[in-house]
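Thread: assembly with ligand

MN 10:42: here's the input set. Chains plus the small molecule as SMILES. Want everything predicted jointly, not piecewise.
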Amino acid sequence: MKAPPRIDNSIQTSTQLMVLLLQLLLLLRLSAAPTAAGDAQTNLLNLGCSQYNATKPALFPAVLNATFSDLYSQLNSSSSPLFATSDRPSGPVYSLFLCRDYLSPPDCLLCLSSAVSSLRKCGLANGARAVLDGCFLRYETAPFSDQTTLPGNTAVCGNRTSASAAAAAAAEGLMSDLAEAVPRIGGYFAAAERGGGAAVYGIAQCARTVSESGCAGCLAVALGNVKGCPPAAEGRAVDAGCFMRYSDADFFGGYKTVDLSTFLHSGGSSHKGAIIGGAVGGFGGLLLLCLLVFLWIRSSRKSEKARRGDILGATELQGPVNFHYKDLKSATKNFSEENKLGEGGFGDVYKGVLETGKVVAVKKMAIAQTSRAKADFQSEVKLISNVHHRNLVRLLGCSSKGPDLLLVYEYMANRSLDRFLYGEQRGTLNWKQRFDIIVGMARGLAYLHHEFHVCVIHRDIKSSNILLDDDFQPKVADFGLARLMPSDQSHLSTKFAGTLGYTAPEYAIHGQLSEKVDTYSYGVVVLEIITGRKTNDMRLEPETQYLLEWAWRLYENGDSMKLIDESLNLEECNPEELKRVIQIALLCTQSTVAARPTMSEVVVSLLTRAEPVMHPTRPTFIDATSRVHASSSTSTGSSSMSNATVSITQFSAR
Ligand SMILES: *[C@@H]1O[C@H](CO)[C@@H](O)[C@H](O)[C@H]1NC(C)=O
Ligand SMILES: *[C@@H]1O[C@H](CO)[C@@H](O)[C@H](O)[C@H]1NC(C)=O
Ligand SMILES: *[C@@H]1O[C@H](CO)[C@@H](O)[C@H](O)[C@H]1NC(C)=O
Ligand SMILES: *[C@@H]1O[C@H](CO)[C@@H](O)[C@H](O)[C@H]1NC(C)=O
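BT 11:07: finished. Tokens for the full assembly:
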């Protein structure tokens, strides 16, 4: 796929470059061709600079300038006005530039110069990329032209909300058809339009240097990202090898649209994901799994290369980064008590300050370091580091060479939700913030279950695992780690299922795993958010100690408004919305697994005004008191078994 590197050591002087730029400007002035979209679309969506400087800082700026002028002159030649690459092994600097197909050649040149001035902000960084509405520019010190999806891929959503729910649905449909069709279209670009009254316009594009399967894999990730945008009227997904965008406005200015139906399989756009640790669902799932394995192998080859060469973490967005154990040790002041943020089922978490000044959260995994565990760790880290969603905590990297396995996550200033519900900050969240948290959590989980390549089941959703960013947007933490528990007996481990009151009964008792296990725990957390209390609180009156039981009793008596946290100002709540949310929470916590909604259904119910059609049926409760008895008589079996022994009592009908 890659073009043979051109060995061209001559470096343009800055004067030559200036002349070149002047000529270009002149050219632009002269070519009065009206542009399709009417502008060069130089709105900058995403800029990433490597955290490492080039190894030859004296030479680097000149090679970089030469690279940019390579790109200018390729675009100026009429044979390829929208796409250019440059390989300069003397730097080394490798680069790629790409315009959206609807840009006119002069607009494409303008977009390049805007992208170049953005990348100049990265100084001597040995890698950088800029995504603009109209174009994409990237350089690295190692070849990358076959790369598709990389950490750092994300959604950029507009801040206007679309007029109708129909428009949001049309946008999703259009994006998923584009994701399927574009890998099969020559040039990897398509623009399309959908809908009558509320029209939606969309495009998808892959870099021309990637393979068809690489393009499909990249767009699958992009689709997952962009689906987080509706009901915003505009959304985009940015990544290293592909781009998607939809809008209710015609942003491609009448550029020719494509009839996508001729490129779609008759089966439509329903992809079946494989369930981790479970059976692979059908042929489609198998294909996706193969693709994923292929991507893993490729990315692991790449990181081998990275370790050998000087391109480690070439772009900050590229990962997972392998950190040195000693760096993380000093970042966390030798894992000091003072830096400790919390204790989780998988190990303790510490605040760390890296040498660059970046603040991170470091999780010290509490698992035995067998070679099997290490291998599992590596593959899990690769998987998790590809999960990108604004409601999921980002994994930045790991360390697997030292005495402990460490995971490095982005740091969340506001820490966890439980502190705001019944901890030191209780009563400080208003209803709007709480509702946004309820929706955001559901979106994050829906992504893990239905939109990522494989279905990732969290298994330990609880309010201390929901972190809040500066704007109190929720981010789910600790996903993907459950499989690292020894021999996947996580449901039998008290450390894990010890969060009684959150765990679905079929999983706690029989180890029956499905994504509905997360739906159940989600419902419990939503009730905590509404009531501002813990799921189990022995300090309360006996009849209210178990939140779920109490919520049910009130609901059946038509008294569910009594659940609402006293610290909430009822005047700023919408009572209909509150009722709907309570009903959804109860639907989620039903004993019958099939009766619980999927997380995607939860998102829809939360965002549409309609009442959920189903009415919740009374659940079975885990009786916490008998659990305490069971764990105090550890005569049978291993202690972890007996700790997990639970009994059920049917909630008696009145
Ligand atoms: C761009 O192309 C035109 C003709 O195709 C040529 O006259 C001009 O010198 C070129 N400009 C640059 C900067 O290469
Ligand atoms: C990279 O180079 C810049 C400019 O010379 C300098 O300010 C910065 O500290 C360097 N960064 C690193 C990580 O060496
Ligand atoms: C590279 O180009 C920039 C902008 O045109 C200029 O300021 C800089 O001096 C050039 N550097 C070299 C080494 O040519
Ligand atoms: C929406 O975003 C644009 C640009 O990003 C900004 O100028 C505008 O103020 C924003 N509008 C609202 C309502 O936040």
